[in-house]
Amino acid sequence: MIQFLAGIFIKDHNNTNDANVRRQYGILCGAFGVVLNIILVIIKMTAAFMSGSVSILADAANNMSDAETSVVTIIGFKLASQKPDKKHPFGHGRIEYVAGLIVAFFIFGMAVELLRTSVKKIMHPEQTGFNLVIAGILIVAIFIKLYMFLYNMDLGKKLSSAVLVNNAKDSISDVVSTSVVLISSFISYKTGIILDGYAGTLVAIFIFYQAYEATRDTISPLLGEAPSDEMIGAIEKDVLTFDQILGVHDIIVHNYGPNKTMMSLHVEIDSDESLLEAHDLVDEIEQLLNEKYSCSSVIHVDPVNLHDEEVMMIKDRMKERIRQLGDDIKFHDFRIIHHKNEKIIAFDIVVPFDYKSSDDEVIKFAKDACKEMFPDYETEVTVDKAEIVR
């Protein structure tokens, strides 16, 4: 159904990388969610009045809350699609993450309310009515919510949308909640054993966990998370397809919302290449990256002296010594700087955040090693973090 509506209302609906298409999908999903949740409120209220079940009534109230989260989805996509301005030159894409966080808080609220209702039912149990009409209404509600879970999760992954993924988690929580209400009502009807409150408590715990996951997964991109190893590997592979590139490092990727990425990296080029040749090469690589990853990229050039035997000898010996720090330690951007009457060996060492030694200890180790092997040289060492620059 959602794809059918997308074909009618969204031009070029298969191009999900387009910002306008993303926005329209978000608004469509939100509007469709409002309609379906209002339908659920009506049919569950009917079932609640027929059965006298407080659990079903609470379930209906939860669906009204879900309709509100669908409105949040619409507002979130609309605000996130605003054009960049002077105060926000990288756009407003992260508003979508904020909307996802609001949805996560709604899920928390649902869990709290369900737990409160369930505890009351345990303390004051009461028999409720049950018949085939009530069962049919609840089964229909379960299938509607299951469908909402499927389309929200599918589009959430396709669009890399935290708010739609959180809507999906909210929907699957409702599926579990309504299923438990249905099963416990049926058991109570058949056996006289009232399980409503106990079952509701278990569901509340499940929904708390869903809310925790939704909050965690939404806060992470808001704080700024590292790119995946797969993405870094793909970038390196693309850059190294250019024959003049000897190496690539210090890859940094900033995310300012879905489809809004800034990327910077260093490439190593033979120092004999002219400045003009290096500039043209870097322009070509930037264009490739911008098109493939829908980003704005900036590349810094590190010239590498391949023809000075002394430089190569010093580099190889320092590289061998740095390996003593561990297999997960990287070494790059090596150069020898001639400044006035000084000769300076400069390089970067990349260590993970959880490395056993401090940055100062790593720098001291490198400087001591350099002084021992090459006493006529000064040393400049920069420590980078592997999870920030790759």
Summarize the structure.
With 390 residues, the chain is α/β, with parallel strands linked by helices. Helix content is 62%, strand content 15%.
Q: What distinguishing features does this structure have?
A:
Cation_efflux_TMD_sf; Alpha-Beta Plaits; 11 helices; Cation_efflux_TM; Alpha-lytic protease prodomain-like; 2 domains; alpha/beta; membrane; 15% strand; transmembrane; monoatomic cation transmembrane transporter activity; 6 strands; three-stranded mixed sheet; 390 residues
Polypeptide structure, described:
- This protein is of the alpha/beta class and 390 residues long.
- The chain folds into 2 domains: 2-223, Up-down Bundle (Alpha-lytic protease prodomain-like); 229-385, Cation efflux protein, cytoplasmic domain (Alpha-Beta Plaits).
- It contains 11 helices and 6 strands.
- The strands form 2 sheets. It has a 3-stranded mixed sheet with strand order 1-2-3, covered by helices on one side.
- Strand 5, helix 11 (359-373) and strand 6 form a beta-alpha-beta unit.
- Helix 2 (19-51) packs antiparallel against helix 3 (54-80), helix 3 packs antiparallel against helix 6 and helix 6 (162-191) runs antiparallel to helix 7.
- The protein is elongated, with a radius of gyration of 29 Å.
- The model has no long low-confidence stretch (mean pLDDT 85).
- Belongs to the cation diffusion facilitator (CDF) transporter (TC 2.A.4) family.
- The chain crosses the membrane at residues 25-43, 95-112, 132-151, 193-212.
- It comes from Butyrivibrio fibrisolvens DSM 3071.
- Residues 227-303 form the Cation efflux protein cytoplasmic domain.
- Its main location: membrane.
